[in-house]
């Protein structure tokens, strides 16, 4: 598996609270240079990146990183993100709803956001570190039923990130039209290869350039 193939699976990510415009520009330059799948950036920077880099595929985050925003708040975030130029939206579910067994609310939330963004890509972050195996299986079902495009393991801001075991579990329980994104704790080339081979179509990482080229990366 060559580096170009791995880069084509990467959402090159910079979601630090202190992310500067200089850092975002460096991230975008790297994304263009290495042909990553997208840049994953804070909503605040979407309009600026779309103007400066009109051909770049922009991913952003909604309800990030804790997920406990109301559906109405997430809906406005998603609508604004797409209007300003994002093609992909990574939303965090209301984890409290999942833990309380209020699964209809989780399904509704995902469905509402997918309806809002339409043909744009919706990735659903379920934050696996907080869920039991049974809850993860239920999330696979809900993500499928709600019409999302991807199920995503983690925000990278929780107590743990992606694991191969969770990716394999997803693979068994998601519908045929749902893809998998692994994020959080992907730190070596071997990790990246293993997640792709396990069935991930996307990898969320801030350090792909450093991992694959040995240079410094703008992402963090």
Task: Give the helices and strands as they follow along the chain.
Answer: HEHEHEHEHHEHEHEHEH
CATH-defined architecture: Alpha-Beta Barrel
The rough form would be described as globular
The CATH topology annotation reads as TIM Barrel
Structural class: alpha/beta
| Ends apart, CA distance between termini | 25 Å
Extended strand count: 8
Total DSSP helices = 10
Kindly provide the name of the CATH class: Alpha Beta
Side by side, the strands of the main sheet go 1-2-3-4-5-6-7-8
pLDDT under 50 segments (min length 5)? Answer: none
Radius of gyration: 16 Å
The biggest beta sheet is recorded as: 8 strands, parallel, barrel
- Tell me the strand percentage band: 15-25%
Number of domains: 1
Proportion in helices: 40-55%
Name the CATH superfamily classification: Aldolase class I
Overall pLDDT confidence: 96
Question: Which secondary structure elements does this structure contain, and how are they paired or packed?
Answer:
Layout: H1 3-7, E1 10-13, H2 21-34, E2 38-41, H3 46-52, E3 58-62, H4 71-84, E4 88-92, H5 95-99, H6 103-117, E5 121-125, H7 133-145, E6 150-152, H8 164-173, E7 179-183, H9 189-198, E8 202-205, H10 208-213
Helix pairs in contact: 4-6, 6-7, 7-8
